[in-house]
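C-alpha cells for chain A. Residues wanted.
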C-alpha cells in the first residue's frame, strides 16, 4: 500500500512511506502552517489533578453519599432526582467544587497553545473549569457539558452570585433562589439553584452548538483523554475538513472507523444494520479501497496519558521547559494558598470535615501523580512515550468525569442543533439505551 499523508503532514514526515506519528504532528504544530488547533478534551486531561471518583470507596466520597441511598450513583446528576432530593448533589459539590484541584500539565499546554497563537478552541466535556484556572481565556473554551462557573435557579432561571453559590457548595448546603416572585411560586422556599452543569434530562449549552462551526476551520484536531462514547461530542471528530490531520492522545485507541459500534457513533442509514463504525479515526488506512488508493493517512494515535502527549508535543515544539516551569510555578502558588486557607479556617473547609479518608486521599493521589509527572519529565523521551505501564492508575477522575460526560447522553436528541442530521436521531436513541444501569 502506498501511504500518503495530507500535504501538510507529509512535509514533516521524513519517511513518506511510513504512517505519521506524534512527532510528525509535533513538527507540523511547530510550523507556521498551524494557527487554528481545535482540541477535544475529556476526563483524561483532568485525571492527574486528582479529582476524586465518588464511586470509589477509597476516596471516602462514596461513603459520604451512602446515607442518601442513591438508587444508582448517576442519579445524583439527574434533574428529576435533583428536584426531589437535592442534598446528595450539594454534598458532592463540596468535594468537586473548583478550587480544590490544580490544573494538569495538559491544561497548561492548552494555555501555551493559545499564547503561541495556535489555538482556535477547546471543546471540553469536563465541568471542573481547570482550563480556566490554568489561564486559558474563557472565550477559547466551550464547556460542552456546562461547568460550575455560573449557576441559576431551575424554577425561574435567575442567575445567582458566583461567590454566594461557591459558599453554598463548599458548605454542602442546598442553594435556594431568593427572588420574591420565585418564593411565592414555591410556597416560600424558593426554587433550587444549581450550577450550570448539564444534567441528565437537560440540553447542551447553546454555546456548544454556536461554536460547532469552528471545527470546519480547524487546521489540526487534537483529541485528548476521552473515550468518545458520548454523543454528540463524539461526532465532532468527523466535522473537521477531510484534509485536517487528527491526533488522538489517549490510554486506549478509540473512535476507529470499522471498529465495533458500541457507542452511538454510526452516521445513520445503513449503519443500523452494520454494527461497524462508518466514520471516525482511520489510523490504519482501512478506508483506502485498494493498494493503489492514494488517499492520505491523516490520523495519528499516541497511546498514553494526556500529560505525556502534551509533553511530547511541547518537546518537539521547543516549549517543554516553559511548560514545566509555568506548571511548577503555579502549582507552588496553589499549594501555598491552599495551605494558608486550611490554616485560617480550621474546621470550616471540607478537608477537615471529610476526615482522613476524604480529601486527604485525593491529595495523596494528586501528590503521587505530581511526582509521577516530574519523574516523567526527567525521563528521556523514548521512555516517556512508552506510556502503557501505568495505565491503570487513574480510575479516580476518569470515572466521575466519564459519568458527568454521560449526563448529556439522554439529551443528545433534544439538544440537536437546528440543522441537524438524521444520524443524530439514531445517535440519540442509541445513547438513550445506554442510560445509567448501575
Ligand atoms: Zn428562582
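Reply:
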Amino acid at each position: 500500500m502506498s501511504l500518503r499523508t495530507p500535504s501538510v503532514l507529509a512535509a514533516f514526515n521524513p519517511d513518506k512511506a511510513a504512517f505519521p506519528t506524534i512527532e510528525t504532528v509535533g513538527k507540523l504544530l511547530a510550523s507556521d502552517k498551524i494557527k487554528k488547533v481545535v482540541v477535544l478534551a475529556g476526563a483524561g486531561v483532568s485525571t492527574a489533578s486528582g479529582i476524586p471518583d465518588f464511586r470509589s470507596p477509597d476516596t471516602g466520597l462514596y461513603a459520604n453519599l451512602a446515607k442518601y441511598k442513591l438508587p444508582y450513583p448517576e442519579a445524583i446528576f439527574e434533574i428529576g432526582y435533583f428536584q426531589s432530593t437535592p442534598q446528595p448533589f450539594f454534598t458532592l459539590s463540596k468535594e468537586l467544587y473548583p478550587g480544590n484541584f490544580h490544573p494538569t500539565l495538559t491544561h497548561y499546554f492548552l494555555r501555551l497553545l493559545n499564547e503561541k497563537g495556535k489555538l482556535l478552541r477547546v471543546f471540553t466535556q469536563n465541568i471542573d473549569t481547570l482550563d480556566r484556572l490554568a489561564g486559558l481565556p474563557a472565550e477559547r473554551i466551550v464547556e460542552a457539558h456546562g461547568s460550575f462557573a455560573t449557576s441559576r435557579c431551575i424554577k425561574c432561571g435567575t442567575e445567582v452570585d458566583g461567590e454566594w453559590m461557591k459558599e453554598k457548595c463548599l458548605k454542602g448546603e442546598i442553594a435556594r433562589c431568593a427572588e420574591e416572585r420565585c418564593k411565592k411560586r414555591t410556597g416560600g422556599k424558593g426554587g433550587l439553584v444549581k450550577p450550570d452543569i448539564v444534567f441528565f434530562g437537560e440540553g447542551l449549552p447553546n454555546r456548544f452548538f454556536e461554536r460547532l462551526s469552528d471545527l470546519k476551520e480547524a487546521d489540526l484536531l487534537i483529541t485528548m483523554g476521552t473515550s468518545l462514547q458520548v454523543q454528540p461530542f463524539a461526532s465532532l471528530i468527523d466535522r473537521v475538513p477531510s484534509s485536517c490531520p487528527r491526533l488522538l492522545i489517549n490510554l486506549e485507541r478509540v473512535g476507529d472507523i470499522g471498529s465495533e459500534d458500541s457507542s452511538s457513533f454510526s452516521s445513520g442509514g445503513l449503519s443500523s444494520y452494520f454494527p461497524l463504525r462508518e466514520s471516525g479515526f482511520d489510523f490504519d488506512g482501512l478506508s483506502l479501497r485498494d493498494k493503489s488508493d492514494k488517499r492520505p493517512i491523516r490520523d495519528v494515535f499516541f497511546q498514553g496519558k494526556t500529560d505525556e502527549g502534551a509533553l511530547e508535543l511541547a518537546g518537539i515544539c521547543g516549549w517543554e521547559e516553559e511548560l514545566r516551569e509555568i506548571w511548577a510555578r503555579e502549582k507552588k502558588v496553589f499549594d501555598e494558598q491552599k495551605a494558608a486557607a486550611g490554616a485560617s479556617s480550621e474546621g470550616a473547609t471540607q478537608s477537615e470535615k471529610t476526615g482522613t479518608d476524604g480529601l486527604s486521599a485525593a491529595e495523596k493521589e494528586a501528590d503521587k501523580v505530581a511526582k509521577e509527572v516530574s519523574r516523567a519529565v526527567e525521563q528521556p523521551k523514548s521512555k516517556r512515550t512508552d506510556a502503557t505501564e501505568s495505565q491503570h492508575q487513574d480510575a479516580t477522575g476518569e470515572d466521575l468525569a466519564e459519568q458527568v460526560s454521560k449526563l448529556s447522553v439522554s439529551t443528545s436528541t433534544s439538544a440537536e442543533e437546528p440543522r441537524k442530521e438524521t444520524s443524530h436521531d439514531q445517535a440519540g436513541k442509541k445513547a438513550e439505551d445506554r442510560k445509567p444501569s448501575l
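The chain has 18 helices and eight strands. Residues 153, 155-156, 158, 177, 179, 182, 190-191 surround zinc ion (CB under 6 Å).
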